[in-house]
Design brief:
This protein is of the alpha+beta class. It has helices at 14-22, 82-93, 100-103, 123-132, 196-206; strands at residues 41-47, 65-70, 104-110, 113-118, 140-141, 145-148, 157-165, 170-178, 184-186, 209-211.
């Protein structure tokens, strides 16, 4: 076959397609669309790349409009060990004031991970059942992360606790929410003492008040710092220098950690 024959058909190698996508700019490298989660909840609409306005953005991202969504409840069966875990927790909570249907708002399986949304007043009871029940044995809490959804009215602040069962080699997340007007969530210090400094950090950066924490003080920012820097409505710039004239107290007046 020669180049002047009508049977000649140009072919492209897979590598050529990959190279073309990689050099096509942002619009050529978007992640593949994932199937929509059943019951997906839209809590806000984000305009622009970073949600800011009036910044003189000339990047071309200013016209992007994208919904901010949270995955909805997942119906059983959940798959893998998730069904056994949920059944064991339901049995462990049966007959208590924190029965499964009362304490758990929703069960979410998203991207292969299990999250239990817990009503904040039952968080400690659920955590104790997960730690103590032989069929569960989630002995390790890996910390706590804060999340701020300013448009999610009535539950703007979330605390997320990733747990691990060393005995059964299983993982799950507990998530509790609180309104910005009442940012109180019970501390898990008595159940998992390792969350001590993690809850302090979440309080420092998000303003969540962990009731029952032995010494809930700022851990990074100065004690008199105004605001919580990782909230989405915190100013991105123009904050005045607040260390000017700072005073270091003598040792006998410094705060003590219990």
């Amino acid at each position: 076959m020669t180049f002047d024959t009508p049977d000649n058909i140009e072919t492209r190698s897979p590598q050529a397609d990959t190279d073309a996508a990689a050099t096509a700019g942002p619009e050529g490298t978007l992640p593949p669309e994932e199937p929509e989660q059943a019951g997906e909840e839209v809590i806000a609409v984000r305009r622009g790349m970073f949600g800011t306005s009036g910044s003189g953005d000339t990047s071309g991202y200013g016209r992007l409009v994208r919904p901010v969504t949270l995955p909805g409840s997942t119906p059983a069966p959940y798959g893998g060990y998730f069904d056994d875990l949920v059944d064991a927790l339901r049995a462990a909570l049966a007959g208590t004031d924190a029965a499964f249907e009362v304490a758990i708002e929703q069960v979410v399986v998203f991207r292969g991970e299990l999250t239990l949304h817990v009503r904040r007043e039952h968080l400690v009871s659920v955590a104790m059942a997960l730690r103590n029940d032989p069929a569960l044995r989630f002995e390790l809490c890996l910390g706590v992360s804060g999340v701020h959804y300013p448009d999610d009215a009535g539950r703007e602040l979330h605390a997320v606790y990733p747990l691990m069962s060393i005995t059964h080699n299983r993982r799950l997340r507990l998530e509790a929410s609180a309104p910005d007007a009442d940012p109180h969530i019970p501390s898990l210090f008595e159940v998992y003492p390792t969350v001590d400094w993690h809850e302090r950090e979440t309080y420092d950066f998000f303003g969540i008040l962990f009731d029952g924490h032995p010494s809930l003080t700022r851990i990074t920012m100065p004690d008199d710092w105004r605001g919580h820097p990782q909230r989405k409505d915190y100013p991105l710039g123009g904050i005045p220098v607040e260390y000017k004239g700072a005073r270091i107290p003598p040792p006998d007046e410094r705060r003590a950690y219990s």
